[in-house]
Amino acid sequence: MNPSINTGRGDVREALILAGIELLDEQATEGLSLRRIAARAGVSHAAPAHYFDGLPGLRHAIAQRGFVLFAAALATARDDQRLRHSFEKLEAICLSYIQFAANRMSLFRLMFDELRTPSPDLSKVATRSYLILQEASAPYSKGTAPDEFETTLWAMTHGYASLELGRERPPSAPFKAPAFSEMLNNLIARNG
Fold it and tell me: Where are the transmembrane segments (predicted)?
């Protein structure tokens, strides 16, 4: 049992969610099974089925928690008092988005996979993170409809994160992506 997971009475749901996140961080989605999650949480192998109606329910709960963590990371970037200019804030939020994906790629993928069949609760928590990006993009929506610019920005940021374009590539790699900040500057310049 992982000592960081508390399985006291009433904490079993929480322990299972945390165990699932830890397994994703360590072993990707292949490591995500009810038995493995239960073993990591130090509870009966029947507990996940009882608390979540099986792996689909537990995956959904893990995705919800992932979006809570994701929104917190974006909000931390947004609220950084050292950033005064709207571009700096937008850039910090986008880079935080990309960094979250880089640090927790399996969780990131599960979060967005679960959005294919969202519950109202999952939609609500996922929307929180999008609203942070939307708000930061508002000053740059001048030349286009606001939703067109923010959708382009979101697609670029999410694509950059999903394709792991920010990571180092060997010199022999067939493609080297420009720095995200350069792409963001180009997008804003084209829109201005």
Answer: none
| 148-157 average pLDDT score | 93
Task: Specify the pLDDT at position 1.
Answer: 43
Residue whose entry in the numeric block shows the structure tokens 């329910």: 57
Residues 61, 37, 72, 152: is their CA dihedral positive or negative?
negative
Residue 6 domain boundaries: 1-52
- The b-or-e profile of 125-162 (16+ CB within 10 A means b, else e) is bbeebeebbbebbeebbeeeeeeebbebbbebbbebbe
Rounded Cα gap, residues 109 and 121, in angstroms: 18
Does residue 14 fall inside a structural domain?
Answer: yes
pLDDT, position 10: 57
Residue ranges of the alpha helices (H) in the chain?
Answer: 12-27, 34-41, 47-52, 55-78, 86-103, 105-114, 120-137, 146-162, 180-191
Q: What is the pLDDT of residues 90-103, one digit of tens each?
A: 999 999 999 999 99
Q: What is the pLDDT of residues 53-95, one digit of tens each?
A: 889 999 999 999 999 999 999 999 999 999 989 999 999 999 9
Please check whether residue 57 lies inside any domain of the structure. no
Neighbours of 68 (CB within 10 A): 14
